[in-house]
Amino acid sequence: MAKRDKDVAQAGELIVALVEKRPEELRLAWEEAYERGPQWRKLLLGGMKQLRPEARDLLLRVLERPREIQLEWVWPLPTRAHITILVAKS
Q1: Closest to 63 in 3D by CA, of 78, 75, 49, 47
Q2: What is the pLDDT of residues 71-87, one digit of tens each?
């Protein structure tokens, strides 16, 4: 369990650095991964839920998504299907 926690912490630190230095590239990488299909979306959103609240909020800001308990994702256009996930408020 400690390795997973360390990996999640490092991912959060990387997200914070990318938000500060290369936010557009982070957004584009997320979009590309998200478009790979349902399994990728599940993994991306599951990983996001494990991030520290600060890193998660920064990522949501770059992705232009609100921080809510119920997060409706319409990606990237409103014509796409809705995907509902739970993101716990801290």
Answers
A1: 75
A2: 445 445 443 333 334 44
- pLDDT at position 15, please? 95
| Whether pTM exceeds 0.85 | no
Domain ranges of the chain: 2-86
Position of tokens 């992705």? 63
**Amino acid present at 68:** E
Give 25-80 as a DSSP string.
Answer: HHHHHHHHHHTT-HHHHHHHHHHHHHS-HHHHHHHHHHTT----SEEEE--SSTTS
Q: Which amino acid is at 70?
A: Q
